[in-house]
Each structure stands twice: as structure tokens, then as C-alpha cells.
Design a protein that fits this description.
Elements: H1 3-7, H2 33-36, E1 52-53, H3 60-68, H4 111-120, E2 129-136, H5 139-146, E3 163-170, E4 174-175, H6 176-183, H7 187-197, H8 204-207, E5 213-215, E6 221-226, E7 239-245, H9 248-251, H10 260-276, E8 280-286, H11 289-292, H12 295-307, H13 317-325, H14 337-342, E9 347-352, H15 356-364, E10 368-373, H16 385-393
Parallel strand pairs: 1-5, 7-8, 7-9, 9-10
Antiparallel strand pairs: 2-3, 3-6, 4-5, 6-8
Helix pairs in contact: 12-13
Bound molecules: zinc ion (ZN).
Length: 416
């Protein structure tokens, strides 16, 4: 038997009898982590699994390629010594409220602390949250220091102008009954559509209704915390927050068709400033590129906007997206507040966002919002005027006076 044939023996866990009877059940909102039970999405022993999917989100596929190419040992078990978080988050009462958090595992950073007995017995339980610290070196922050909007204090901002932060990487862990409830649909219907629309990727969605947790093959999210993370949950301590959805072109490469990087940098600047005053700041970065429609769709829309009759104008901004993608937005902000509840946030004093969908989702999830801050005019790149004017006219929050009578005159650059 050659190596490939031997390793290609496939065991599906689409039958209940494949479940090892000692595998702990998941009791999602249970307060005691031991009673809640670990999420086990191991692929090394299928009978140990109590969840659908596997760890690492979309990177699962790269792991598979590493194994296929012979570079990665299929049976590798992670050595988690010294990997624990630099600070402890929670537990917060929000973790145990019914379906307050349904898209991540709040115990995901404390696998060794709570589930070491089961790990010792041979269950492959892995972290889905990791907490570390870093320094941010950002040109816009250096500029804010040069213009005296920020002052190094040797603590939050070093004398070199670096910002000290705690960062938390969060993998998606979906509690399907809670997701269905949030979307106001039947769980069975949700499972069927997830199964169909991923090309049948996870048969257990339809064959194993007893498995309630899915680790979907999507990107993880990252929270950047400014100041003491413990302060996030104290509603009496000023909190500045930006919940930012990925836009690689602007965030990383400085592409000027939108306001994403300027808005993100302004959020970081203000979060640092709040922390310097004894408050706290949090910027959460969600991997939802191009309104969760993806970058290919996004670039197609850019071309369609710039080639349409009359050029790229604010009045047709949302329309062109809908023509190409079928929807204007696929981000489902209803799930975004889960991450705020993970940190025990009860009040956001300064919310950096113009999006009503984000604001409504946060407020409807029980978090109080004080000030809403739109991006200052001087930070909007010329070619992004189309986006910003279209958003304002569509009812996005702004401090400015809204004039939607001349949207066809707000025009972006033509293609060369
Ligand atoms: Zn953008």
C-alpha cells in the first residue's frame, strides 16, 4: 500500500454511532467551563469530535496542502506550553446570558486552565482565542504626534511614538441554534443552506443535528486594546471604540477610493488618546473584505462604477454593488457585538462609525452608545468623496449637514 492510499482512508462522522461516548457535550451558555465543556474539532480522531468543521478557519485548506505535500505531520499535537494569554479576559456575565455570544468561544483562550484533565486523557482540545501584546508603529500616529494631537507619555505611547497594545485573535466558533435565533430562521433551514451554499463541504450540518457547533472556514478577527483591558467592562471608564471591517486595498496599501484606512487610523489615534486619559480603547478588525462580498466582487464594482454612463457618481454608489453582487452588503452586523460582549463591554462612550447597521446592532445587543463620531472631512481622500457622500445620503451617521440633491455631481476619478 503506498503512502497516499494509506492516508486517504476517509471516515465521515456523519453517523451518530461514530461518536465516542465519553466525549463531553457542549452546554453553550453554562457558567462553569467544565460543565460548558470543551469544543473539540480535532481531525486526528473523528470519534472525539463534538463540533463540525475544524480549527484555523480558512487556513485549514493550507494545512491540508502542507499535509498533502508531506511537509506537515498529520498527527501533530500542538505543544501549548507558555502560550497562555498575556492578560486574562473575563469571565463576564455576558458570557452566560442566553445566546448573547454565538459566534466565538469565550473560553477559547483558557483551554489548559479548564480542560487539562480531558487533554491528559488524550482529547485534542485546541485554543480558538489567543492574547498577546505588541507595539504599533504607524506613520499616521507619528504625524499626529508631530502635529501635537498626541503626546508621548512613556506608557501608552513611547517616546519613539509607538503605541503599546494588547491584541486578541479570535477564531469563529458558531453555536448554530444561536445563529439561527439571531437570523430569526429555523435551525434546520440554516443548516441546510450552509451545507448547500458551501458545495456540501460539511455533511454533518444536515446529518448530525446533535452537533450544535460549527467552526466555519472563514477568517478570524482581531481586537486591539489600548490601556488596561480590565477597564473595557467598566461603564464608568471612558471607552473609545472602532469596529472596522477589513479593506485590504486601503488598510494596507493606501488605495484612495475609500475612507477605510483614514477612518481606522483616526480610530487608533483616538483610542490611544482615551487610554492616555485613563480610559480605554478598542479597535476590532473583522475579516469581512468588501462588505463580506470579497475583493473580486469589490474590484468588479469599482470598474462598473467608473465605466457607467456619467462616470463614478455618488447617486449610483450602492446601486452598482447590488447589480454585481446581488446584495449591497453581506456583513451581518448582528453578530459583530458578540466580540464586544466577550470583553464585557456595557457602554461605548465614543463610537467611531458612520454605519447605522453597526450602531443598531450594538445598541440592540444591550450596549449603550454615547457619542457617535463620523470621519473628519480633512481625512477623506478626493476619490473617496463618492463613497462618503453616498453613505451620508443613504442615512449613515454624520456630523455634517446632509445634502442629497446633487449626488450625481459628486464624481470620482475616471479609469486611465
Ligand atoms: Zn475601503
Amino acid at each position: 500500500m503506498d503512502k497516499f492510499t494509506k492516508s486517504s482512508h476517509v471516515v465521515l462522522t456523519s453517523h451518530r454511532e461514530h461518536v465516542f461516548k465519553e466525549v463531553p457535550r457542549i452546554n453553550w451558555n453554562e457558567e462553569d467551563p467544565k460543565k460548558r465543556g470543551p469544543i473539540i474539532a480535532t481531525i486526528s480522531n473523528k470519534s472525539h469530535r463534538n463540533a463540525i468543521g475544524t480549527h484555523s478557519g480558512s487556513y485549514t485548506v493550507y494545512r491540508a496542502l502542507s499535509i498533502a505535500s508531506g511537509h506537515f505531520q498529520k498527527e501533530h499535537k500542538p505543544d501549548l506550553k507558555d502560550t497562555h494569554g498575556t492578560v486574562r479576559i473575563g469571565p463576564h456575565p455576558s458570557w452566560f446570558e442566553k445566546n448573547r455570544i454565538v459566534t466565538m468561544d469565550p473560553w477559547g483562550a483558557e483551554i489548559n486552565e479548564h480542560f487539562s484533565d480531558q487533554i491528559d486523557k488524550g482529547l485534542d482540545i485546541r485554543p480558538s482565542v489567543a492574547i498577546t501584546q505588541a507595539r504599533l508603529k504607524i506613520p499616521e500616529i507619528q504625524e499626529a504626534i508631530a502635529k501635537k494631537r498626541l503626546t508621548p507619555d512613556g506608557n501608552i505611547i513611547s517616546k519613539e511614538g509607538d503605541i503599546k497594545i494588547t491584541k486578541v485573535a479570535i477564531e469563529p466558533v458558531w453555536f448554530l441554534p444561536g445563529i439561527a435565533e439571531r437570523l430569526k430562521i429555523d435551525e434546520g433551514e440554516l443548516r441546510k443552506i450552509l451545507f448547500q451554499e458551501t458545495g456540501g463541504m460539511f455533511p454533518e450540518l444536515v446529518t448530525r443535528p446533535d452537533l450544535k457547533v460549527l467552526l466555519p472556514p472563514i477568517g478570524s478577527n482581531t481586537a486591539y486594546i489600548f490601556g488596561d483591558p480590565k477597564n473595557l467592562s467598566n461603564p464608568n471608564i471612558e471607552l473609545t471604540c472602532r469596529v472596522h471591517d477589513e479593506c485590504n486595498g486601503s488598510d494596507v496599501f493606501g488605495s484612495d477610493i475609500c475612507t477605510c484606512r483614514p477612518y481606522l487610523m483616526w480610530g487608533i489615534e483616538d483610542a490611544a488618546r482615551t487610554a492616555q486619559k485613563g480610559g480605554a480603547g478598542i479597535v476590532i478588525y473583522f475579516r469581512k473584505e468588501g462588505r463580506a462580498l470579497g475583493e473580486v466582487t469589490k474590484f468588479l464594482v469599482y470598474n462598473a462604477r467608473k465605466r457607467q454612463e456619467g462616470g463614478d457618481t455618488a447617486d449610483k454608489y450602492f446601486y452598482r454593488t447590488e447589480c454585481v453582487a446581488g446584495v449591497v452588503d453581506a456583513r451581518f452586523q448582528e453578530f459583530m457585538p458578540d466580540h464586544l460582549h466577550y470583553f464585557g463591554i456595557k457602554k461605548i462612550h465614543n463610537l467611531h462609525s458612520m454605519s447605522n447597521m453597526k450602531y443598531d446592532a450594538i445598541v440592540n445587543s444591550g450596549i449603550e452608545v454615547g457619542n457617535r463620531l463620523s470621519i473628519p472631512k480633512e481625512l477623506v481622500p478626493d476619490d473617496a468623496q463618492v463613497e462618503i457622500e453616498a453613505k451620508k445620503a443613504a442615512g449613515y451617521f454624520t456630523d455634517d449637514k446632509v445634502d442629497d440633491t446633487n449626488l450625481d455631481k459628486v464624481k470620482g476619478r475616471d479609469l486611465d
